[in-house]
Amino acid sequence: MSALSDVARLAEVSKATVSRALSGNGYVSIETRNRVVAAAAAIGYVVSSNASSLVTGHTKNVGVVIPFINRWFFGEVLEGIETALIAAGYDLTLYRLSADDAARRRVFEYFLVRKRVDAVIAVGIELTRTEVDLLRSLGKPIVGIGGAVEGMATLSIDDVAAAELITELLIGLGHTRIMHVGGSQQKQVDFRVHSQRLKGFTQAMRSAGLRYDDESFRPTDISIEGGYTAGLSILADPRSRPSAIVAGADEVAIGIIIAARQLGIQVPAQLSVVGIDGHDLAPMFGLTTLAQHPKSQGTMAVRLLLDELTDLTEPLDRPASNWNTFPVSLEVRQSTTAPPLP
Amino acid sequence: MSALSDVARLAEVSKATVSRALSGNGYVSIETRNRVVAAAAAIGYVVSSNASSLVTGHTKNVGVVIPFINRWFFGEVLEGIETALIAAGYDLTLYRLSADDAARRRVFEYFLVRKRVDAVIAVGIELTRTEVDLLRSLGKPIVGIGGAVEGMATLSIDDVAAAELITELLIGLGHTRIMHVGGSQQKQVDFRVHSQRLKGFTQAMRSAGLRYDDESFRPTDISIEGGYTAGLSILADPRSRPSAIVAGADEVAIGIIIAARQLGIQVPAQLSVVGIDGHDLAPMFGLTTLAQHPKSQGTMAVRLLLDELTDLTEPLDRPASNWNTFPVSLEVRQSTTAPPLP
DNA sequence: CTGCGGTGTGGAACCGGTTCCACAATCATC
DNA sequence: GATGATTGTGGAACCGGTTCCACACCGCAG
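ok -> structure tokens follow
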């Protein structure tokens, strides 16, 4: 409704002075400023961010591309990002990216390009070289969480090490027949993370000289249902049953525990289960897990981005491909113990 | 980078013609249009939505305020909204609204007002009269999902009827000692829904002439953990144990089932449990529930909003406070049966 | 042949701010 | 007292589109 010129008229100053008074850039005497502020308040004036963006070139808005919303890790990250952005006075525009290629291109070539966002946070998505180049050519900083690609700053835990560590915990307890139930290695949006975890698992097994074959890995959906279904099928036959399972994510681990309980298999007496992530439900299920902290990953991503946005004096010719590894913490609970005697 | 005037120069026409050719408003000969489109493609031109919004007054952007992200119902709704908005060429700006009053005011008085959003969807939030008026005075349509207030269009299931129905199912099976474990009645962002469900429960109990007292309702967090904790405490004492529980949400019901299993209480032989929502995990736990379809509620909200946005010839003087009740479906599974013989 | 409605196009104003530049006043410095 | 730096303010250009208006051309009815 009310525009800057209305404020100017009311305060009896020029538009330029109003702009300076309200934005805090440039010289304005204290009395003038007060008069302007009062006038603005009187008519309920709020800057039009459109008009402002048009001339300044930045929008105070960050685009977030994310493949899932209703999955624990992603929801947590999103929450962390949202909180941090709002606190910094930024808006968050959300784009859920499915595996659908057409939709994905649309987001990149239509939505993200229209000078609407200052920067992009990509969560759990492996961006293509082209996508990154497109964004960079527009001068938009990108930071990734989880999946990544060279040419952009990335935050994530070291998934290989995480899986390795949690597997070693089982090995250390004396387990030898260990299975990995994790994310499908098919091309998926969040493919990378789970192939890394699989890699960590196999490395640990190989280092310990334990048998590892096709049967040792079972792909599944990353969800409680996925783990449950896989669990039922794996645990059905007592002879082929492993003594321990490394789940690719806590949801999967929880599903497996539920399946085990249902089949009357004691956890951990007959079956040890470990997960990765530090899911909210882990304590409730007594799940031993390697916890990460997705919320603070979100916060940190925002901080990185804002730094880059304000440091934009030197126009992003910097290394740019720095990989920040996030800390994890081992949370040992009641789902792990030494293997049953044969 | 490239602006409309660049396209104009390349295609050897005026800016006005480029605008018409690309937006499809006004007369442009087919040859000219082709030339313009080709020129635009050649230099990778994309309209600046800022500039465009500045003059047209609308932004093709919808603000969504929502209290939780990582809770099933809210995540689903958000997904539905996102999909529908993107499909319609709209952006979605996300504001998570905590109970924190200051933050809430900030969102309303600062973020939502800056001519950045064309409309607002409020999910599970009881907006105050002031908030609604503020938005309406700016000519921004609002639609609510779940919590609502007069003066705005709202979508939700009939929570009273839902709770009543599912309670009656238990009563019909012969249960008489029924408890309700549900959302706290303290002032919370999504308070309304759960007070409605409690009301439906009490109504059903009263209608059936069953005893209902303070002990019959147990407030809890709406989460699996919340249900689990409440479940452990309720089910601990065999003498005071109810024969059936109506959970205020499926998460809670699932938590209760897990608690029951852990205590060695057979569901449904010794304890029937029902929920409301139709959570993804309900089938896995054999949970009998009254299912709603949050994703399509999101979609529907978007449709309503877009209708209002395009019909804006008559500037929203219409009834405006229409309450659309959403369909639910009863999904009977294995968590319910007749009460055990005394 | 004149007049009129439908097409097609360009010029220019405008949306609502920000910022460069010019100018004035004040104050400290030499 | 002249010089120059600091502070305060207004005018005007500009960001990148959209749209009103004027004008030209066309075909067709009277």
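Chain B has three domains: 4-47, 57-157+294-326, 159-292.
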